[in-house]
Amino acid sequence: MRDVENFIGGAAFVDSADGRTFESITPIDNTPIATVAKGGPDDVDRAVTAAGTAFETWSTAGPTERERS
Q1: Where are the domains of the chain?
Q2: Three-class secondary structure of residue 57 per DSSP
Q3: Given this model, what pLDDT does residue 45 score?
Q4: Residue 9 backbone zone (phi > 0: left; psi -120 to 50: alpha; other: beta)
Q5: How many whole angstroms separate alpha carbon 11 and alpha carbon 46?
Q6: 1 and 35 in contact (C-beta within 8 Å)?
Q7: Strand order in the sheet with 21-25
Q8: In the chain, pLDDT over 70 holds for what percent of residues?
Q9: Which runs of consecutive H residues, i.e. helices, occur in 14-69?
């Protein structure tokens, strides 16, 4: 079984802020296939902050600069 973390800010995979997880199961036979970070309000806040920062950078970047990133 694999672990699936949140990807916030485009830099790294991170656990949920409060450490909560849930098991994702396959509908074929209901066996667990992954342990997934369960995002909560703090994770949403982190994602919104990261998106705002990315928007500030990307909204002023031209196509050539975006292509290089």
Answers
A1: 2-62
A2: helix
A3: 96
A4: left
A5: 13
A6: yes
A7: 2-4, 32-37, 21-25
A8: 99
A9: 41-58, 63-68
For residue 19, what is the enclosing H or E element?
Answer: none
Residue 61 structure tokens: 């970047």
Per-residue confidence in pLDDT tens, the chain, 69 aa: 899 999 998 878 999 999 999 999 999 999 999 999 999 999 999 999 999 998 988 888 888 887 776
b/e per residue 31-66 (b: at least 16 CB within 10 A):
eeeeebbebeeebeebeeeeeeeeeeeeeeeeeeee
Q: Amino acid letter at 17?
A: A
**Dist CA 52 CA 42 (whole Å):** 15
3-class secondary-structure state, position 11: coil
- Kindly report the pTM of this predicted structure: 0.75
Distance between terminal CA atoms of the chain?
33
